[in-house]
Design brief:
Blueprint lengths: L1 E3 L23 E6 L7 H18 L11 E4 L2 H10 L14 H12 L24 H11 L10 E8 L4 E6 H6 L7 H8 L9 E6 L5 E8 L1 H4 L3 H13 L16 E6 L12 H4 L4 H5 L6 H24 L6 E3 L4 H15 L4 E3 L6 E3 L6 H19 L3
Parallel strand pairs: 1-8, 1-9, 2-3, 2-8, 3-4, 8-9
Antiparallel strand pairs: 4-5, 4-7, 6-7, 10-11
Helix pairs in contact: 1-12, 1-13, 2-6, 4-6
């Protein structure tokens, strides 16, 4: 598993069995994509690079979904996950990775209609009568894109976290659950709309499914990022649960054996808040100051950063403790902002590979491992080799 996260970004990798599989593989491959709204352009840029390297090795028809056992995404990462893993009419991936940014550039300004900078994590002036955006265009384009496709039809095992605001608990949708529970086999479009429903930004999403006995199951969902903005740990836990239950036979692997897991975890450039606040500053804050102080949103900053960074620290600690740290790679909707985001993704590729310091939470360059593009090129070779093992005749 590997980590590409110098600007609150992570890159982790996984490999997918195909219909031609005749041989067990050697490693489990995982792709994880953070939430972040229009900043999905950053992982889109990195995924396009990775897929281009896979195509150099295996031909122009190579697609990301062919190489990953599990693809996990929250919020905008959930939408990218669906685009990578949903089947088209020929049962091939709906999108090539290079087309993800085209989607954001075409539809981003209509999903988030505004002229203000969208690099902020949350809007500083949400409407008093409802969310900042009505979400109508987002729901429409996702429905057109995914049509009647359901969770159990994805080409890789997809995991998309949401949060049920009625039950006050996370609600995780996965391909494997959808195949055994009718009530979890929701429309992929409904799940994508739900995981993108960031509080104050977009309205919560309600939909229904059916239990095996025909009874209705209701979901009242908002953005999965409130529970798992970085869904890496959700994906790894899911894999280990599948192993314990005897439902994972792609690779011979024991629970908690991270030496056989390759993870590419992609962040979306969420702003870091180090040194922004201190104990003296906040000691006498009122509840209002914690919610909004001088144009900042301290409480939301803290929850947002802690949710993502805690995953990096915990996962990095586990991989480092088992000597598998090299298996974990971290890495506004105006045209100007979107071009800037694409440029960030490109520049991130040329930065040195960094690994999280579990004591400070800071990302520190790793000597001898080159740039992120070097690491992704190495990962592409590992993914290609793993796929060749699995489809060997």
């Amino acid at each position: 598993m590997a980590l590409l996260r110098p600007i609150a970004t992570a890159l982790h990798c996984a490999n997918k069995p195909t219909s031609h599989q005749t041989t067990k593989g050697k490693i489990v491959t995982v792709l994880s994509i953070d939430g972040g709204g229009i900043r999905g352009i950053i992982p889109g840029t990195i995924l396009a690079f990775l897929e281009s390297k896979l195509q150099e090795l295996d031909g122009p028809n190579a697609r990301i979904a062919d190489y990953f056992d599990v693809i996990s995404g929250t919020s905008t990462g959930g939408l990218v996950t669906a685009m990578l893993a949903a089947p088209d009419k020929d049962n091939k991936p709906l999108f090539a990775a290079k087309d993800i940014n085209k989607f954001y550039f075409e539809h981003g300004p209509k999903i988030f209609p505004q002229d203000r900078n969208l690099f902020c994590v949350v809007p500083y002036s949400a409407s008093a009568t409802g969310p900042k955006y009505d979400g109508k265009y987002l729901r429409s384009i996702i429905k057109d894109l995914l049509d009647t496709k359901t969770m159990n039809q994805t080409l890789s095992d997809v995991i998309i976290p949401t949060f049920d605001i009625k039950l006050i608990q996370p609600m995780v949708f996965s391909t494997s659950d959808a195949k055994i529970k009718t009530s979890k086999n929701a429309l992929l479009a409904d799940v994508c709309v739900a995981t993108s429903a960031a509080p104050t930004f977009l309205p919560a999403h309600y939909f229904e499914t059916k239990h095996e006995d025909g009874k209705t199951r209701s979901f009242n969902l908002i953005d999965g990022g409130v529970a798992a903005n970085n869904p890496t740990q959700v994906a790894i836990t899911h894999i280990f649960n599948q192993i314990v239950k005897g439902h994972f036979d792609t690779v011979d692997i024991k629970p908690m054996d991270t030496t056989k897991i390759l993870v590419v975890s992609l962040g979306t450039g969420t702003a870091k808040f180090e040194a922004k606040y201190n104990a003296t500053m906040v000691a006498e804050w009122s509840p209002i100051n914690w919610i909004f102080d001088k144009g900042a949103t301290p409480l939301i900053d803290v929850y947002s950063a802690s949710s993502t960074d805690m995953v990096d620290i915990q996962v990095s600690s586990m991989f480092q403790a088992l000597g598998a740290e090299k298996n974990y790679l971290l890495d506004g909707a105006t045209t100007t902002n979107m071009e800037a985001l694409a440029d960030i993704g490109s520049k991130l590729l040329e930065k040195s590979v960094a690994r999280v310091n579990v004591d400070t939470g800071a990302f520190e360059p790793v000597v001898g491992e080159g740039t992120n593009s070097d690491a992704l090129t190495r990962f592409a070779k590992l993914l290609s080799d793993e796929r060749k093992i699995r489809i060997a005749k």
